TrEMBL record, chains A, B:
Pathway: Amino-acid biosynthesis; L-isoleucine biosynthesis; 2-oxobutanoate from pyruvate: step 1/3. Residues 6-271 form the Pyruvate carboxyltransferase domain. PROSITE patterns: AIPM_HOMOCIT_SYNTH_1 (PS00815), AIPM_HOMOCIT_SYNTH_2 (PS00816), PYR_CT (PS50991). SMART domains: LeuA_dimer (SM00917). Keywords: Amino-acid biosynthesis, Branched-chain amino acid biosynthesis, Isoleucine biosynthesis, Transferase. One of its GO terms (molecular function) is 2-isopropylmalate synthase activity. It comes from the Bacteria. GO terms for biological process: isoleucine biosynthetic process; L-leucine biosynthetic process. Its EC number is 2.3.3.21. This is Citramalate synthase. The lineage of its organism: Bacteria, Pseudomonadati, Pseudomonadota, Alphaproteobacteria, Hyphomicrobiales. It catalyses: pyruvate + acetyl-CoA + H2O = (3R)-citramalate + CoA + H(+).
Amino acid sequence: MSAARIHLFDTTLRDGAQTTGVDFSLDDKRSVAAMLDKLGIDYVEGGYPGANPLDTAFFAQKPTTQAKFAAFGMTKRAGRSAANDPGIAALLEAKADAIVFVAKAWDYHVHVALEIPLEDNLIGIAESVEAARAAGREVMLDCEHFFDGYKANPDYALSCARTAYEAGARWVVLCDTNGGTLPDEIGTIVAEVTKTIPGDHLGIHAHDDCGCAVANSLAAVEAGARQIQGTLNGLGERCGNANLVTLIGALKLKERYRERFAIGVGEAQLGELTHVSRALDEMLNRAPNRHAPFVGASAFTTKAGIHASAVLKDPRTYEHVPPEATGNLRKVLISDQGGKSNLVAELERIGVTLGRDDPRLGRVLDEVKEKEAQGYAFEGADASFFLLAKRIIGELPAYFEIERFTANVERRHNALGELVTFSEAIVKVKVGEEVLISVAESALGPVNALDLALRKDLGRYQSLIEGLRLVDYKVRVFQGGTDAVTRVLIESADETGARWTTVGVSANIIDASFQALVDSITYKLMREGATA
Amino acid sequence: MSAARIHLFDTTLRDGAQTTGVDFSLDDKRSVAAMLDKLGIDYVEGGYPGANPLDTAFFAQKPTTQAKFAAFGMTKRAGRSAANDPGIAALLEAKADAIVFVAKAWDYHVHVALEIPLEDNLIGIAESVEAARAAGREVMLDCEHFFDGYKANPDYALSCARTAYEAGARWVVLCDTNGGTLPDEIGTIVAEVTKTIPGDHLGIHAHDDCGCAVANSLAAVEAGARQIQGTLNGLGERCGNANLVTLIGALKLKERYRERFAIGVGEAQLGELTHVSRALDEMLNRAPNRHAPFVGASAFTTKAGIHASAVLKDPRTYEHVPPEATGNLRKVLISDQGGKSNLVAELERIGVTLGRDDPRLGRVLDEVKEKEAQGYAFEGADASFFLLAKRIIGELPAYFEIERFTANVERRHNALGELVTFSEAIVKVKVGEEVLISVAESALGPVNALDLALRKDLGRYQSLIEGLRLVDYKVRVFQGGTDAVTRVLIESADETGARWTTVGVSANIIDASFQALVDSITYKLMREGATA
């Protein structure tokens, strides 16, 4: 029996953007789309072009090469034709492979929210799907509140789905919009729907309001649906959407699924899953969930006790899947061979080749463990990780040395009686035998002033760092043991468009920031092939 | 048809204590037990008396009045009688109503971990259960790895369960110890087991390694099991145990369960669920999960967009259960697109009553929009939003005024040649006619030094802010129009356990931080009812 292909549809950039506290920039959106593309996701939904300038700009060009790029929008408004609907026009202008229309499938909503006759809603579905089909796009219909709608009025909910399918929609997606449906109901209802629409045209869109979004998605697939919608790390409004990271782990690693279902994520891509999950959190300045299935830092951690010795005897005694399959680590066994093979793969990924038997590998591992114990997180800071490895293997030139720095901030009334703030910094560096001292002021604060002073005069390296600029700065304070520790992540870019992230950790936010600044400059000098 | 009684068994203090980073003190254990007792939980498992002095001390007296207090331990060791087993002696000495034995139910584990004949394991189960029964205790058997065991050798797994049942165990608990089993398998296997052991003697103990612990527990109940084991907020080793908070929400509020199943948690107790969930996090100094089903701060939050207006028309349009049932709140996020009805509801939530026709409402809305255009985000900063509204409606006292501040950071070599960093800040404030100037130094950097200096002497308000402390500090830099803008969120707490978040925005990170600090102190003074 050949495995049925399950299509993964990611809505991190659309439904996930509804998460409280999450704001994607245009650059963020591009990075996430590229990451999803590389991971083997089938569809990347980018947003709602026409609804806001950011999404319209994001759809000016296609950010994926393998994955289909999908645009989300409403079906046409009642009382006008699809051709005269500005929302549909905006969707058709977007550089999208697929167009996802959302339409109400619960009669109660058509009455209360739309306040139009039930039939008009069906006409809106049919004409919108046809218009997008005529424009040569793949089309999907998200049936909002499908399950509540089905329970209230199965005939009407089904008509919405069937109308879209008959109008040429490739996929009809059954949405549990308020997240209130439970796995056994999902299974029963999806099975019923497959009698009208073939399962390989059905998708599931689940929310986690009952803590069952993953189980609901799996129940729909068991009942015949062949597309799953979800988000990275379960981002999404309220309790979030179905977590695609968990679903990928389950579909790829659990035998009962692996035998019957296939997804576009290959074994090597699966090995990047932990990295992808944490990189998204770093970008959003969110603390990764340590307890996340498959990818959480604690997902394979055994606290000393009755299980630990059994895990050491044979990991299969307490592990349902091998942690390294998703690029994660077993924590009781971090220093053993499993830890080393992970590290070899991680180093390989950032361009440092070290054999498993190289004695320097153990020293890199020890240093990483020590730094992580202090609060460093290299998951989101490849450039600092690269420098750490290069330093230990003796390939990091000593470009410059910091002698001292000072930074001052002053807020006071100026001569006009206005409250104004000034920042000034002095940095003294040694480049070879040359001692250079620079001062800079900034309206942006002491970190910016330090950055400007540091980059003002690096002697013979100065010309190499002219194109360097800081594009993002993130700070997180957390408990490291008994004391608070500050972790700073700095993202830099240069004239070639290259981007890299560095990390600094200290009790002092300025120290932590300065470390990350120094790493960024050092990384740029390595990129330029500078020698000490 | 009368509803079947489902018994809730909480293992927060035993399995939950295995969570990375969680350490309960004796007082913590007593508080949690009291909280669970009040909530209507049937069994409170307190720990493993005999295994460590803390648990032994906790079992010196019973901490619950309604709930049965349960002690956990291993079955007797092979090669000695139950009467001569020190572990069993410690269990029988504990002031517990119920004794929970754990035994291996997977033949592979009996071979690899115990290294004893399969039959000896059954003898251990029978004799241990009988010994505890003879001592007048209610007895349960946790069948470790039951589902893996059942898949490998169903006869042996069932013999373990049957042996306990026939020896007089009140409950046989089927444990998915590594969390690797999926809902449909759980349903099928539990249904099979009910042919040997009646469902009202069967319990389920699920872990979240596949993100399905809640669904697995529900699947077991649907298949006939009548006891659910779990933890508050899903605490537990690795990815955690089944989240009892979510399960209580689902069993009490979802119609399909409420009709058929009854639990010991009444309506009034359900109304305390949000409080219980957050109180546990407070005790453990963990940030509550905003996205937790039923009880998370964002569980009923709608970000402005296509859903917000429908929620305001009729909450049932987008809410699967009413938030107030668990003591939670509905929240519609303030935003650029937010209209007046959003704002009235939001102000009501934070305790500011303004009628729709009040002219000040428009001024609040304009101010919110202007601030959001500058980069403020009030969705995560209720306290700053409260102050903004109070200021506009003329109810914000002018407690103090900042005259000026300075902050300095210096990194240099000390007399020992070590690189060290110092921060120092001076703040000058005017409280009424009194001018106060304070200085403070900090190892944590200029923001901390400013915070310390600002709170060092606020004159007549000083005694009111003694209990104030900063618990979190977050910084995000983003593009606001053409220039970079820094947004700082500060979370504060006080001696009553109250928490609030304030926001500051500026091109300068120190200014932004200072604004958020000033807002936090002002909010605390308002809470204290201080007058200007």
